[in-house]
Write a structure and sequence with these properties.
With 283 residues, the protein is α/β, with parallel strands linked by helices. Helices cover 39% and strands 19% of the residues. The chain is built from 9 helices and 9 strands. The strands form 2 sheets. A 6-stranded parallel β-sheet has the order 1-4-3-2-5-6, with helices on both faces. Strands 7-8-9 form a 3-stranded antiparallel β-sheet, with helices on one face. The longest helix has 22 residues, at 194-215. The protein is globular and about 55 Å long. The model has no long low-confidence stretch (mean pLDDT 97).
Amino acid sequence: MQVIKSIDALREALKPLAKQGKTIGLVPTMGALHDGHGALIKASVKDCDVTVVSVFLNPIQFGKNEDLDKYPKRLEADAKLAESIGADFVFAPSVAEMYPDGDPLTLVRDETLEGMYCGAYRPGHFRGVLTVVSKLFLISGADHAYFGEKDYQQVFLIERMVRDLNFDIKIHRVKIVREASGLALSSRNEYLTDVERKQALSISEGLKLAKQAFEDGERRVSFLRDLVIKSILANRGQVQFVEVVNQKDLQKFAGALQPEDKVVILVAAFFGKTRLIDNIELN
């Protein structure tokens, strides 16, 4: 496996492989890899001839007073994990390599959804995500890209960007990977104290309660939301949002759901100073 830090070097490494007809899979990450990222890498290795894992802490998707400076950075360990799973390349560019002229003036946006849910509390976040992901697509020339469903709004926006801008790449969603306790894996979990980690289980527990109620016939949106909210509040969490939205367009539901509705409950909550997100689909 090779660790490559320049755009030109990655293109030169991948160009002959693409000419040979080999399929290229891309797993975009910000580093601090865990088993959730591992599932993405495994999926790419299974599907593709060549797997590229990008490790880039993208500054333009972080706002003021967010955790850019303290976000875990451990490239050597990340490279070892990626290699152990079967990745062929780790692309680890510097900020100057990706943005040689400073913050880019050309940004990719989704004006409908970038200010909703996570975007309402993280202004500019999704512009930064879509911009860097589009750059990674163009740099790698990948045929396939892999994203985790924990970041549900993010992968939805990326899928729509690919359709709207005619990127020649297939997006694969990979199911949420959870700890045995039910806590969704996240690089930010390591910020949690032992007590906060136990309290944070109330997110997945609340989502399970809502799913069970839905399967038992409950269709009131307010009732389903309240199950999740009460679970979090009962465990000293701070709810940022809990929304029941349409899987097709991520628009909010109100009132009662219809039998044909396919929905997802999106959650963001704080435990201590750590912001966690999670979701569950109801079909």
